[in-house]
Amino acid sequence: MTISEIAKLANVSIGTVDRVLHKRGRVAPETVEKIMTIVNDYGYQANTFARNLKLSKNFHIGVLIPMLHSEFGYWNLIYEGILKAAKELSPLAVSIDMVEFDRSKPENFMNTAEKLLIKKPDAILLAPVLPDAAREFLAKYNEMDYAFIDSPLPDMFPVSTVVQNPFRGGYLAGRMMNLLSPQEGTYITVQTHKAAYNSSERARGFKTFFSNKKGYRNIELEVQLTDGGIELLENAYREYSDIKGIFVVNDAVHRIANIIALLGRKNQTVLIGYDLIDQNRKAMLCGQVDCLLSQRPDFQGYTAIYQLYRKGILNQMPDPTICVPIDIILPENLEDERSTIIPQEALCIPRNK
Amino acid sequence: MTISEIAKLANVSIGTVDRVLHKRGRVAPETVEKIMTIVNDYGYQANTFARNLKLSKNFHIGVLIPMLHSEFGYWNLIYEGILKAAKELSPLAVSIDMVEFDRSKPENFMNTAEKLLIKKPDAILLAPVLPDAAREFLAKYNEMDYAFIDSPLPDMFPVSTVVQNPFRGGYLAGRMMNLLSPQEGTYITVQTHKAAYNSSERARGFKTFFSNKKGYRNIELEVQLTDGGIELLENAYREYSDIKGIFVVNDAVHRIANIIALLGRKNQTVLIGYDLIDQNRKAMLCGQVDCLLSQRPDFQGYTAIYQLYRKGILNQMPDPTICVPIDIILPENLEDERSTIIPQEALCIPRNK
DNA sequence: TAAGGTTGCGTTTACGTTAACGCATTAGTG
DNA sequence: CACTAATGCGTTAACGTAAACGCAACCTTA
Questions:
Q1: Predicted TM-score (pTM) of this structure
Q2: Domain ranges in chain A?
Q3: CA gap A229, A246 in Å, rounded
């Protein structure tokens, strides 16, 4: 079914059909009805190729995420997924542009974010780790499509939100801790950004798992990544002689693992952390980390870009929220958990090369 | 960069450029070189929209998988992923057609498979659970693009193979078993299709995990789904009084779980199985199953369709093998493991319907 | 009633690619 | 030397959509 077939059936020209389909007015009501009846009966759908050819639309996505090196590779994994999607979608006129912001300086967010707008994106992919700043920014450019990644921002209307449930992640960490170290004792939760939604929810989940278990104590520590936190942990071991396990709520677990190894406490302490960044993979391979949970950051980035593309180019209804499963990684399945999404090459065939 | 821009730069017509790009001959060698230099220097890439509009290619994928109801829902999950991809890709001129075959009757495979060819597919998605039959079929239609799902077929040249490593899955099941039930004793592996590659590899992986552990005995049982296998298991419990756990290598675990419950042996037996089909989810919710591994069948189906589409429509180089991570599902993360891929709605906007 | 505006519709061009067609010029053959 | 064949190239018509443009016919208002 094409526009000209409809035109023929309705005894009008394609211009008239087009005006009806795009509600550009200047068509007699009876004609509108006649055309709409045909359109509905035959189930017309615009040809995506023709449509995009004519519009020579190029769909530009602005990506706004924390500085890639501000943490230990988590944001890099997200960015890799984003890049992979962008490569695949480049022949479909999708392009991206990234700006990194400093999550420790909310006051700079707006300035940084506005750099993104210079390139006039058609949509924005945003990690709302600074909720207030993100809200302010989106309110200012409220006509723009946007998607969230890493964490949600309630009461907003994104095209899509790609996240993982951090509470259940923490709860599952509790369960894994209990499997890996069934004994009673003290279990420590380590956070680095206490304000971060994901971090605090994971800590809460972990705590909840142990809350109805007698004999299990849960202590929360906040370690500053700058000073390394050696003394803090040393003190903890001094204060609580029965420390059996540590759950680090983010990708910094390899740092804590190092400290535990330095303190010579690894053999009494089970370590569980988050995210399969390189350092954590290595830490697991050399036995410093026992279990990792993963929120599949590459998949999150990849998926979020695809959602925006589907809305922008294909005119499809995206999935409003995509909840990423929680991966459990043990040394036994570590090697299978290499990135699913960023393998070999996804470039165009050099057709005529 | 478009063809006409190249033509202008080379002082030739677009027809000549097209002949060079498509190697249709009848162009002077110097002209070819001149044009190719420009193409390479400027990095020309054909506009996908224009290309597909002109070709009005519609890319039809034939899907050839075992009967959806021959097992307990695993193939249905795969099919759901396939359908989701097909829906998303329908505006890009991708369509699919499925034919189910009876994996217990290899001799019928060729007949069934040829039904698929009536619709003249441009590519085939195939689960090579009957290796010899699949080889024979593909040899006969050797010009066709194809992808494998569920299991590989060595020495073939598919567009892509989307699978999971079954040995490591079995090995990981061993590790989980050891966590959930650390005691020494007898651990049983249950298979239903002994010939199936995935099944036997998983059994081997499980056995390997326990092979260097003193005090742990591994027994293999083959249960026929038809007779239910009650006696077989009853006998096993009689023969080995120290049965501590059972690993079912496929989605039939809920059936075995039922039997164990009937025999009143659940409290002494840890049950680990495969795949998050509905019955297994229910069995886990009511405590009959302790742990499930998942090969993300929906993701496999979805991904494989996308690989074929990328090759066929976008002219991209697909990822030759995609190895799906092994999911570990415990009651604690069961709810997060609802299908990532088949959520809400991914339909086209009822544009004009 | 003439000038100007509005309404309803058809026509046309353009997007970039593909491939058929056509037309010269040259090469090969009897 | 005429006659066909091959070579090298330009021209053109699609593919389906979008939107500018143009043109009647009718309606206002001075």
A1: 0.91
A2: 3-46, 52-163+297-319, 166-294+330-347
A3: 14
- The sign of the torsion formed by the CA atoms of B250, B255, B258, B259 equals negative
CA-nearest residue to B18 within chain A is A352
CA nearest neighbour of A220 among A198, A246, A239, A181: A246
* First-to-last C-alpha distance (Å) of chain A: 37
Of all nucleotides, the one whose C1′ comes closest to residue B24's CA is: C19
B166-294+330-347 is a CATH 3.40.50.2300 domain: yes
| Set of chain B residues whose Cβ sits within 8 Å of the Cβ of A270 | none
Give residue A68's pLDDT: 85
Task: Give the tens place of pLDDT for each residue, B322-331.
Answer: 999 899 999 9
From the C1' of D16, which residue's alpha carbon is nearest? A50
Phi (first) and psi of residue A264, to 5 degrees? 70, 30
The alpha carbon of residue A34 is apart from the nearest alpha carbon of chain B, in Å, by 13
Residue from the list B20, B336, B352 with its beta carbon closest to the beta carbon of A326: B336
Q: Rounded to a whole number, what is the distance in Å from the CA of B106 to chain A's nearest CA?
A: 32
Architecture of the domain delimited by B52-163+297-319: 3-Layer(aba) Sandwich (3.40)
Q: What is the pLDDT of residues A265-305, one digit of tens each?
A: 999 999 999 999 999 999 999 999 999 999 999 999 999 99
Judged by C1' against the alpha carbon of A53, the nearest nucleotide is: C15
